[in-house]
Amino acid sequence: MTIEQLQVRLNLDAGTLQLWIEEGWLLPRRDPDLAFSEGDVARAQLILDLRREMGVNDEGIGIILSLVDQMHGLRRVLRELMQASQEAGLPRS
């Protein structure tokens, strides 16, 4: 999805979206222009919900996104450990 498509889909102005990219809240691919995945769209929607629906400020959004990223990383590690455990024939508890 292009930056323009994301702006239209979420009703965002270019400045807001650019700020989110500069803050590192969204990490689009560059091929050669910015391209957003469905994961990026979901993350942008989360940012919007945090701001509009819950009144979270920018500092809070950064903290929440960091925690979400940590949680996803831990889930990935847990899946890898479970797979290694199964491959080693260890029983599940």
Number of strands: 2
CATH topology type: Multidrug-efflux Transporter Regulator, Chain: A, Domain 2
Largest beta sheet, briefly? Answer: 2 strands, antiparallel
**What class do helices, strands and sheet pairing give?**
mainly alpha
Number of domains: 1
Question: How are the elements arranged and paired?
Answer:
Elements: H1 3-10, H2 14-23, E1 29-30, E2 34-35, H3 38-53, H4 58-87
Would you mind describing this structure in some detail?
It is a single chain. The chain is built from four helices and two strands. The chain is mainly alpha-helical. The protein has a single domain (about 5-85), classed as Orthogonal Bundle (Multidrug-efflux Transporter Regulator, Chain: A, Domain 2). Strands 1-2 form a two-stranded antiparallel ribbon. A hairpin with a 3-residue loop joins β1 and β2. The longest helix has 30 residues, at about 60-85. The model has no long low-confidence stretch (mean pLDDT about 95).
